[in-house]
Structure formats: structure tokens, C-alpha cells
Amino acid sequence: MLRFNRTLGLAAATFLACSGLARAADVRAFLPKETDVVITANLRQTLDSELVKKYALDMIKGALSSNKEAQQALTALGLDPMKDFDRITIGMGLEDVTNPKAVIVAQGRFDVRKMNDLMDKLAKDDPKKFAVEQASGKTVYKITGPDQPVPMYAAPVDASTIVLATGKENVVSAYEAVGGTRAPVVRKEVTELLDKADKDASLSIVAYTKGRLDAIPLPDPEMRKLLDQVLSVSINVKVAQDVGLDISIGTPGDAEAKKMRELVGGGLELAKVQVKVAVSQQAELQPLVDLVNSLAARQIRHGIFDE
Predict the structure, then answer these.
(1) With 70 as the cut, is the pLDDT of residue 165 above it?
(2) Is the pTM of this model over 0.70?
(3) Where are the domains of the chain?
């Protein structure tokens, strides 16, 4: 997982720093059939929310301005991340949690020519990290992290879509998805979870977890037994005047649902306390304490997963 995260971080930093993210299209056609988890971040809605404007906007701007490499890329492309970024969707397979397959779809507005010119230049200047390849007649950029044997592949598919993936074939599939020639191939269980997700959420996470969590090491046998009863998870976070959190966990029966309610409820309260303690020790992070304090309208729902 660490190896994947490092490579993913480099790829995302390179391409997302070079792109604007506008249309909130259904991106299911971009996701591979192995997808078990789908994470959707509505960046435009979050940045425009009153809560973020009040507590976190200055902090976000500061973090962006402190990243010199990202700023250089943004300047080269004439982009403003506070205005041009709209939505990011991540699809990930969990069959092998040590090396998960993933696809990232970034939506927004950007100049494809400038993007290609910049990546061509990077490939020329630093061929160990960047390379230009051809696949099915399409240009795909290969991005390799320092000392990382597993690369990421990426391409600006059209004027509003950028795709990064752990497999070159998934970038090629993205061209087909944009052209309308690729139908969604995501498994039925994940599709059903996506259908029930809050389309207006600032952050949405759905996961089909049945048989996918066995590799997670747990020292407590009872916790292992309980985790094995989790068949699906759906999380919706909505940022507006406050932060709304809605969690749904699919279980095979009422007894398991009750245990999960107690576990999630207690864990959430503990997490809130820990966040407050951690950030209160740094004055510059004080706005995050106010943000956590705004957490309201929580619902923790548990239901029987319909297989």
C-alpha cells in the first residue's frame, strides 16, 4: 500500500497541479470492473461552502502557495486551483490491498495542448520519472515515483477530463468512455451502492467489502469476527453551514448491526476528541477545531445488505 500511495501521490500532484477540474458527469464508464471502492470529492461545492470560507479557505490557499512545484506548473498553464477544480472520482479495487488497482478521474477545465506540451517537456527533461507512450493510437504518459517499480499512467482525455490509472489499459478505456463507446462494467453491488449515494454530498465513499477485508491484520479475534460481517459501507459528508455525516453499513443481520452502531458511534466521538486535542496544540490549525465542532446532523444507519 505504501508503494502505491507514493506513486499515486507523485502522479496526482503532477497531473492535478497541471489541470483544472466542470461538468459533474457520471464517471462509471471510466471505472474498471475490479472496482470495489468509489470515492467522489465535490471540490467546487466544498470550496464554495460558507463553512470552508469561514474556517479553512485561508489555510487551503496557504498550503497551495507553499508548494513551489505545483505553483510553477499552475503558472505555466495559467490555472487557478481555487476556481478551476470541480470534482475528483477515485475507483479502487481491493482484491489485493497491498497493490490495489485504481483509476482517478479529474473533471474540470484545462488546455489539453498546454498539458501535453508540459508533459512532453517533463519526459524530455526527466526521462526516469516521465515517459510518453502510445496505446491503441492514443498518447499515454507514464509517471514513475522515486524508487517505485509500479508506475502510474495518465492522459488529458478531453478538455474537461483527466485520467490517471495504475494500468495503461484503463487510460485507453477512458478515451472510449469519453467517446461514448464504453458502457459501465462496474459490478452490480457497487452500482447499487452508487445509486443510493447522496449526489449532493461534498464527499461520498461507497465500498463493497464482502471478502475484501481478510488481509487487514487485527490482533483482536472479536474485532476480526465483527469486521467479517461488514458487507458494505457508504459514507456521505456534506459541508454547508455545518458538516453533515451520514454512515450506512451493510450487515447480514440485526445483531451485527447493533454492534456496528456501538462501535462506529464510539469511534466517531473518540476521533472528534483526538482531532481537537491534536490541532489545538498548533495555533495555525485552530480553524480545524472550529470545523470539527461544527459536525452536526449525524446519522449512523445500519441495514441488511441485499445480496
Answers:
(1) yes
(2) yes
(3) 2-178, 208-304
Nearest CA to 154 among 139, 195, 58, 68? 139
To the nearest whole percent, how much of the chain has pLDDT over 70? 71
Q: What is the 3-state secondary structure (H, E, C) of the chain?
A: CHHHHHHHHHHHHHHHHCCCCCCCCCCHHHCCCCCCEEEEEEHHHHHHCHHHHHHCHHHHHHHHHHCHHHHHHHHHHCCCHHHHEEEEEEEECCCCCCCCCEEEEEEECCCHHHHHHHHHHHHHHCCCCEEEEEECCEEEEEECCCCCCCCEEEEEEECCEEEEECCHHHHHHHHHHHCCCCCCCCCHHHHHHHHHCCCCCCEEEEEECCCCCCCCCCCCHHHHHHHCCCCEEEEEEEECCCEEEEEEEEECCHHHHHHHHHHHHHHHHHHHHHHHHHHHCCHHHHHHHHHHHCEEEEEEEEEECCC
